[in-house]
């Protein structure tokens, strides 16, 4: 194994490709059908591709636990039998390693049978739910334009009935950004304990995107930035996203630390502790989290599934060789090396790391390309949480749980006194 590369890597699989039973307004992936031919209807992963992927993904990683992630499109379109085959093949090639599975779903096709299967095989289910009914149904609609909230809520109830671990993925749009507490309180009220907020940022198509039959602009290339920065009407505004995170954080840090796990906050806490980011958007470099399409083609990133970023195919190539190819091509290192001067001199760079390269299509005040569209919002948010993050970092480093921050906010003098007298942690 090359010393430059981690013993672990991640490949997210899209076994149904861009096929989906919904038609969410803000979806960036359904349009990828155009890249595989307009007339193609069957995006189902073949048995040959599936087995080769599972075998290589397990056997080429010298680690005790292998984590599989299944996404789409909508992966449940494949049916339960497909995933029963997945589990069978994983057992065949496990070789004593622990294998875990996570699946991302819109929830509309889930049944008691599905949920019993997830429970039996310990799948972590990522459920797309944007908030209360009027928020969720604004953009998450079916092919007939009907809202999907009621079906998703039914799915959540079934998942809870079968005691399946659920992680809510809530997309934040221009409008929902104005309702932070409504969204957060709703997710708590329906029993969600793990939450990830995803900013929706998409640009209207440029000439190159239209040539490929796409409805959204492709990510900016290299350090040259994008030709235009015009976003879609549903894209969240930079400061709107920052304000959303601030309002939710202020509720969370006072009431819910340790009880509700918000990925956006907990992933950032590591930065204040001097740790490497566990989430790619906050990592210094990318490149070791690939994505595999239904036909076995592997790309550098979920947001870069375009012809120029194709690395190879699982039937012909070894995963680690593709990771190496991605790194050597500079895909990962460009995240850091192409940061504009304003970012390199920024006080909060240690936390945001320029965020996702997909969003870096703006220019700095000096006219330098490569600035993240969400920069103003992130800077406002990260500056706001600095004192709280420093306190939680100190608590953890002294053997206390981060949740003691809630006591510190209510009575900082009393907490300090207890810590000095060795009171119970």
Helix/strand layout:
Blueprint: E1 10-13, H1 47-59, E2 65-70, H2 80-93, E3 98-105, H3 112-120, E4 123-128, H4 133-139, H5 149-161, E5 166-172, H6 180-189, E6 194-199, H7 207-211, H8 238-255, E7 261-262, H9 263-272, E8 289-292, E9 297-299, E10 310-313, H10 319-328, H11 334-337, H12 341-344, H13 349-352, E11 362-363, E12 369-371, H14 375-397, H15 405-410, H16 412-421
Helix pairs in contact: 1-2, 8-14, 9-14
The gist of it:
With 425 residues, the protein is an alpha/beta fold. The chain has 16 helices and twelve strands.
Question: Could you explain the architecture of this structure?
Answer:
Helix content is 38%, strand content 13%. The two termini are 43 Å apart. α6 links the parallel β5 (166-172) and β6 (194-199). It has 16 helices and 12 strands. α1 (47-59) runs parallel beside α2, α8 (238-255) runs parallel beside α14 and α9 (263-272) crosses α14. It has helices at residues 47-59, 80-93, 112-120, 133-139, 149-161, 180-189, 207-211, 238-255, 263-272, 319-328, 334-337, 341-344, 349-352, 375-397, 405-410, 412-421, and strands at 10-13, 65-70, 98-105, 123-128, 166-172, 194-199, 261-262, 289-292, 297-299, 310-313, 362-363, 369-371. Strands 7-6-5-4-3-2-1-8-9-10 form a 10-stranded mixed β-sheet. The protein has a two-stranded antiparallel sheet with strand order 11-12. It has 425 residues and is an alpha/beta fold. Mean pLDDT is 92; it is low at 421-425.
